Amino acid sequence: MVQLFLRDILKSTLRPIGEIVDFFYRVEFQQRGSPHIHCLFWVKEAPQYGKNSNDDIAKFVDRYVACKADSEEIVGDLVNLQRHKHSKTCKRQGHLQVQFSTATNAKNNDFRTS
Q1: Between the CA of residue 69 and those of 17, 30, 62, 64, 73, what are the distances in Å?
Q2: Angle at CA 107, nearest 5°, toward 106 and 109?
Q3: Angle in degrees, CA 60, 64, 37, rounded to 5
Q4: Which residues pair with 36 in a beta bridge?
Q5: How far apart are CA 41 and CA 65, in angstroms?
Q6: CB–CB of 81/69 below 8 Å?
Q7: CB atoms < 10 A from the CB of 58, how many?
Q8: pLDDT, mean of residues 98-104
Q9: By mean pLDDT, which of 3-7, 9-13, 57-61, 107-111 is the weakest?
Q10: What is the pTM of this model?
Q11: Residues 22-39, buried b or exposed e (16+ Cβ, 10 A)?
Q12: Dihedrals φ, ψ of 44, to 5°?
């Protein structure tokens, strides 16, 4: 399904995020088995951070990303829903855990954040 979405939507002639010249993605599964995707896309003629101005970068992003809400109150509520709040499932042995491998602790497939 991921390959179909890439081919039929993102890399179509519509180019909803610009002309993709390369990409990387990884499918991961949450604890309850729900799949999700982390991805990076290299887009032709995209401005580069540290090389182009912040204004050029903002203009590029604004060409492809939009958000609209009827009121500021709704926007605030939606943003609050996107914030992670640690729960007991984030903790293992009393420490917060990030559940992916890192170079610092690949053996345990996690690292401690506190």
Answers
A1: 21, 30, 16, 17, 9
A2: 60
A3: 110
A4: 28
A5: 14
A6: no
A7: 11
A8: 45
A9: 107-111
A10: 0.57
A11: eeeeeeeeeeeeeeeeee
A12: -55, 135
Q: What is the pLDDT of residues 46-74, one digit of tens each?
A: 999 999 999 999 999 999 888 777 777 77
At 94, the amino acid letter reads: G
Three-class SS of the chain: CHHHHHHHHHCCCCCECECEEEEEEEEEECCCCCEEEEEEEEECCCCCECCECHHHHHHHHHHHCCCCCCCHHHHHHHHHHCCCCCCHHHEECCEEEECCCCCCCCCCCCEECC
Closest CA to 93 of 114, 65, 72: 114
Read off the tokens for 3. Answer: 């390959």
pLDDT at 95: 64
CB 17 within 8 A of CB 6: no
